[in-house]
Amino acid sequence: MNIYQSLAAVMNEVGSVAKREKNTAPNGGFLFRGIDAVTNAVGPALRKHGVIVVPELLSWEYNTVVVGKNRTEMGHARVTIAFTWFGPEGDSIRSVTAGEAFDSGDKATA
């Protein structure tokens, strides 16, 4: 199978990842799907269909911002990542995406 067929097989097998986790922080209360849930759902299907994903950091910017009524200082990270998806035949496709995160600790880029 080429990479397109392999990714289609992965998508058919995984379907969707439900929002089963709940944010219990003040002003939270919403459901979300975390990175662990996505990795646990997609990882086995990628392995089964011989798909390997290789990330490449293209650009990053890290600053601090002050937010909220308590004027909390938070890390603010912006990244651009290229993902190369390799199929079992050795062919590949590349996708590029931007990401942004805030964190009051050390995990804005995680």
Write the layout of secondary structure elements.
Elements: H1 3-14, E1 21-22, E2 31-32, H2 35-48, E3 52-67, E4 72-86, E5 92-103
Antiparallel strand pairs: 1-2, 3-4, 4-5
Helix pairs in contact: 1-2
Q: Pick out the low-confidence regions.
A: none
Number of helical regions:
2
SS strand fraction = 35-45%
List SSEs in N-to-C order: HEEHEEE
Record the strand order, biggest sheet. Answer: 3-4-5
Distance between the termini: 33 Å
Number of strands: 5
What characterizes the major β-sheet?
3 strands, antiparallel
Q: Quick check: average pLDDT?
A: 93
Structural class: alpha+beta
Tertiary shape: flat
Radius of gyration: 18 Å
Task: Give structural notes.
This protein has 110 residues and is of the alpha+beta class. It has helices at residues 3-14, 35-48; strands at residues 21-22, 31-32, 52-67, 72-86, 92-103. It has a three-stranded antiparallel sheet, with no helix packed on it. Strands 1-2 form a two-stranded antiparallel ribbon. Strand 4 (72-86) and strand 5 form a beta hairpin. The longest helix has 14 residues, at 35-48. The protein is flat, with a radius of gyration of 18 Å.
